User: Which sequence fits this backbone?
């Protein structure tokens, strides 16, 4: 009883964290990225500054409110296009606080990107010496600010740092969390910083250069990425900003909207723009501000982020969420993991002695499309990084459903050989005794029923059908039952499900649950009303092609 009272107390404290009385919190920051300062003549370098200086009193947020004050400007990397002293000097003329329309009027919090840290273009001489100028400039700036109390914390190796605006905690992690290419990893520093300054539910604004769109995410190693989000999951993250891609967009990753800021100059998607972040009381709003010309005329453009604080901790694992045909996604497995789904599906083919993934038989034999490379190795890497679980703190296995598309027994034989090095990570039957592992793999489609039912030691299970209920097949053989929705029901998600069909579904579920088996429908209409009914009536694994839609229903 004591532990439940303690848990209740923690939840009450968390529910109140981040809430303030009306009028107590009012913070506004500009977030820019990818300035790419270069030699004169300049256009965008000062167009951006003129536009930023015009934000107070002129920029209108999507809710119709005019911004009255700016507390600071954050630069999410790629300040310089080349590391040359003349270019650094030009940046200082624009982005060190001062007077005049072409000099910024607010405190600036700069950050480094790949153009700032990597080898410069066009064979610039003594690049390492010039690169050191950038590092020295940032070091001297941060040292002064730390001494003056303008920043709270500084990681000298990576140049990551943090500061507060009211009770809002800002963290600039430079190029990306976990970067070791020019420094020590900042992840341990970040953990300690957030524990010190944000453990009581203070809103956190996190900034780095690399984002999570399909191009940028390739620049950010997966292990470091997952470790960062595992850390952020414990805090009240109001906003996450990045740059790098030169397009204003807002992809989601593990349930976080990642606000990626546009570059500074005119290109295919229009004039340069920057983001305006407003945190007022418990409301967070972000919109992009695009300059029209060098006179400082502004317009409000998408994307727009609106949310209410506190943002709940993202520790919830969606145990009943099933990524249908997962391998079709832009990032197989990773997308489902980013939404914290606990079950994914992969269709398997046996081709020339190896196991490939695909809905139809793959024509090209690419190593990247093997089951081992697409699913086994990434899952094992995650399990090892998370202390033996796919999700830290999970109280059950991750479900990996594989649908056999070719000869069942031969494919099973080859799959066992491929999986043998990974056996310890999977749930298994050892001499008839069930042993739980990090992943439970079960076979659908062309099932090798005869072979598996005779094995007393194995690390794979079967997906059953409704006809497998009531005939004595144990959960150690069939832990999940799946069947075709349209064989039993006519309701397509419009209006209310007929009472007779509702009763039939309830009877099927009760029968499966009576045998301690989980249940899944397949082939149902991909409609919100259908998924909602499944969740309400108790379907254990709810499949979807639209991960975002199902996650919103679950949350």
Assistant:
């Amino acid at each position: 009883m004591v532990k439940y009272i303690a848990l209740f107390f923690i939840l009450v404290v968390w529910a109140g964290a981040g809430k303030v009385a009306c009028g107590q919190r009012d913070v506004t920051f500009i977030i820019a990225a990818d300035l790419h300062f270069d030699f004169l003549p300049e256009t965008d370098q000062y167009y951006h500054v003129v536009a930023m200086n015009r934000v107070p009193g002129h920029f209108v947020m999507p809710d119709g409110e005019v911004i009255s004050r700016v507390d600071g400007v954050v630069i999410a990397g790629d300040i310089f296009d080349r590391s040359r002293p003349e270019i650094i000097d030009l940046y200082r003329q624009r982005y060190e606080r001062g007077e005049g329309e072409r000099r910024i009027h607010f405190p600036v919090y700069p950050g480094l990107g790949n153009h700032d840290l990597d080898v410069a273009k066009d064979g610039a001489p003594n690049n390492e010496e010039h690169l050191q100028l950038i590092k020295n400039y940032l070091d001297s700036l941060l040292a002064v600010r730390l001494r003056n109390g303008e920043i709270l914390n500084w990681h000298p190796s990576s140049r990551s740092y943090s500061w507060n605006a009211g009770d809002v905690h800002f963290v600039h992690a430079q190029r990306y969390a976990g970067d070791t290419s020019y420094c020590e990893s900042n992840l341990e520093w970040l953990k300690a910083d957030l524990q010190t300054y944000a453990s009581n539910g203070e809103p956190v604004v996190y900034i780095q250069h690399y984002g999570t769109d399909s191009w940028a995410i390739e620049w950010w190693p997966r292990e470091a990425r997952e470790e960062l989000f595992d850390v952020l999951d414990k805090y009240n993250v109001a906003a996450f900003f990045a740059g790098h891609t030169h397009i204003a967009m807002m992809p989601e990753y593990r349930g976080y909207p990642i606000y990626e800021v546009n570059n500074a100059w005119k290109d295919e998607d229009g004039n340069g723009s920057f983001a305006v972040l407003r945190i007022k009381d418990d409301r967070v709003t972000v919109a992009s501000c695009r300059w029209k010309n060098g006179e400082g005329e502004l317009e409000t453009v998408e994307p727009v982020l609106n949310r209410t604080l506190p943002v709940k901790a993202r520790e919830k694992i969606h145990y009943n969420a099933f990524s249908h045909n997962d391998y079709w996604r832009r990032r197989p497995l990773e997308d489902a993991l980013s939404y914290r789904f606990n079950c994914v599906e992969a269709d398997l083919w046996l081709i020339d002695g190896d196991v490939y993934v695909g809905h139809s038989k793959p024509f090209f034999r690419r190593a990247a499309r093997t089951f081992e490379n697409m699913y086994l190795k990434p899952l094992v890497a995650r399990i090892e990084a998370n202390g033996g679980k796919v999700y830290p703190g999970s109280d059950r296995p991750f479900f990996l459903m594989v649908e056999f598309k070719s000869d069942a027994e031969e494919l099973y034989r080859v799959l066992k050989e491929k999986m043998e090095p990974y056996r310890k990570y999977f749930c298994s039957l050892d001499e008839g005794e069930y042993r739980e592992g990090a992943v439970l793999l079960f076979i659908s489609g062309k099932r090798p029923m005869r072979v598996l039912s005779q094995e007393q030691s194995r690390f794979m299970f079967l997906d059953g059908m409704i006809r497998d209920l009531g005939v004595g097949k144990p959960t150690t053989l069939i832990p999940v039952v799946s069947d075709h929705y349209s064989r039993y029901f006519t309701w397509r998600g419009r209006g209310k499900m007929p009472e007779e069909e509702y009763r039939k579904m309830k009877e099927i579920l009760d029968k499966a649950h009576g045998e301690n088996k989980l249940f899944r429908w397949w082939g149902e209409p991909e409609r919100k009303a259908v998924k909602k009914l499944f969740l309400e009536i108790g379907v254990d694994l709810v499949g979807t092609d639209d991960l975002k839609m199902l996650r919103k229903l679950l949350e």
